[in-house]
Design brief:
Elements (H helix, E strand, L loop, with lengths): L1 H19 L8 E3 L3 E3 L4 E3 L4 E3 L3 E3 L4 E3 L4 E2 L4 E2 L2 E3 L13 E3 L2 E3 L4 E2 L4 E2 L4 E2 L4 E2 L4 E2 L7 E5 L2 E6 L5
Parallel strand pairs: 1-4, 2-5, 3-6, 4-7, 5-8, 6-11, 7-12, 8-13, 11-14, 12-15, 13-16, 15-17
Antiparallel strand pairs: 9-10, 17-18
């Protein structure tokens, strides 16, 4: 009985989320509770998998290409502070946003954090718990804090 209720709940969440996302979004797969702020700035490609605990800050544009998997608890952050304006915090907005792009067929490991302005190339893997501060090329494994190149991936043709 509980699994039926959970399936119905997830379907309702999916339908609600689909209506809020950018109209360019494709059919995605949802496993568990996720959070997307400013969903109209988020584009999910066909077959994107969102697992339990995923957080996407859509203050800046987020484009996730087809067949990307976001593992449990990973975070995509698009907002940051302007450090040179910290002394004006009470008088003006000191926040800024930068887009995040994740190329097709990539895997973002559990608990990984993708910071503002980062582009992750296609067919890449980000290790669990990694903090991605800079762009990641296609066909690589990056891991660590900050994330760095572990090795290249030789993909089947």
């Amino acid at each position: 009985m509980i699994s039926i209720i959970k399936k119905v709940y997830l379907r309702i969440v999916y339908i609600f989320l689909k209506k809020q996302l950018s109209s360019s979004s494709g059919e995605f797969i949802l496993f568990g509770k996720i959070t997307i702020e400013s969903p109209s700035n988020v584009i999910l490609g066909k077959g994107v998998t969102l697992n339990d605990g995923v957080y996407i800050s859509g203050h800046g544009e987020v484009v996730i290409e087809p067949y990307v998997s976001l593992s449990a608890g990973c975070k995509i952050i698009t907002a940051s502070l302007k450090p040179e304006k910290i002394n004006k915090k009470s008088k003006e907005n000191i926040h800024t946003s930068s887009p995040v792009y994740i190329g097709e067929n990539s895997q973002i490991g559990a608990g990984a954090i993708i910071l503002p302005g980062v582009t992750i190339g296609s067919n890449s893997i980000i290790g669990a718990g990694s903090v991605v501060t800079k762009n990641v090329p296609s066909g690589v494994i990056y891991a660590g804090n900050p994330a760095k190149l572990i090795r290249y991936i030789k993909c089947d043709s």
